[in-house]
Design goal:
Keywords: Hydrolase, Protease, Thiol protease. By secondary structure, the chain is α+β, with helices and mostly antiparallel strands. The protein has one domain. It is about 30% helix and about 15% strand. The protein contains eight helices and eight strands. A three-stranded mixed sheet has the order 1-5-4. Strands 2-6-7 form a three-stranded antiparallel sheet. The longest helix has 12 residues, at about 185-195. The termini are close together. The relative contact order is 0.22.
């Protein structure tokens, strides 16, 4: 999708007209990337009391591509509180606090300003934002699993991820929350990196999050 289209009034309606509502690829029934069903996976892990680990985008060096091989850290049994504690914060970790804003996040050690610019533009289009970032997600009974949706080649795609995130010196390697305790942007970034196959693509590719 071109930047001009993203900035046009009513762009959400134009996008959603591409597929009849309910058909696969529509906003109400996005295609499942890697055939991973978010609802089924989450329900299964919640029932068993286990944490989801994504074998299709594993939390190891293979998902870092050409980036330096930093250590992955994950939020097992509310471990997100531990990373906040290491940063000197007593705040509770949240998925999104009081709505998404362009002021929520800042660039980390990875050169991905183009990606942050795309997210910033997205926050101005609330109806489109809630399709890309489902806001009914939280760290309560999350079982380590989240999902996001991307518009690609004429249809919506739902991408499932686990919550393992790369860190350096107790800080998130890439995009991070300015408040320190919001995680919707780092998780969204990981979902896009998975969709583009490697985290390194966030550093080297200069393309829009919404094509």
């Amino acid at each position: 999708m071109s930047k001009a289209l993203v900035n046009m009034p009513g762009c959400t309606s134009i996008i959603n007209l591409s597929y009849q509502d309910g058909s696969e690829g529509s906003s109400s029934n996005p295609a499942k990337y890697n055939n991973q069903n978010y609802g089924q996976l989450k329900d299964s892990h919640v029932r068993r009391g286990t944490e989801f680990v994504d074998k299709t985008f594993p939390p190891n060096n293979s998902s870092l591509g050409d980036l330096p091989k930093y250590i992955f850290i994950y939020f097992l049994h509310r471990f997100e509180q531990e990373i906040l504690k290491r940063q000197g914060s007593s705040d509770e970790a949240v998925f999104c606090n009081k709505g998404a804003s362009r002021f929520d996040f800042g660039q980390g050690s990875v050169g991905n300003c183009w990606f942050l610019a795309a997210i910033s533009a997205l926050t101005f289009h609330k109806s489109l934002m809630v399709q890309v970032v489902p806001m009914d997600q939280s760290f309560k009974d999350h079982a380590g699993i989240f999902h996001f949706r991307f518009w690609r080649f004429g249809h919506w795609v739902d991408v499932v991820i686990d919550d393992h995130l790369p860190v350096l010196d107790n800080k998130l390697l890439s995009v991070r929350s300015k408040s320190g305790n919001e995680f919707w942007v780092p998780l969204l970034e990981k979902a896009y990196a998975k969709y583009e196959n490697k985290l390194a693509h966030l550093h080297f590719e200069h393309c829009s999050m919404l094509h």
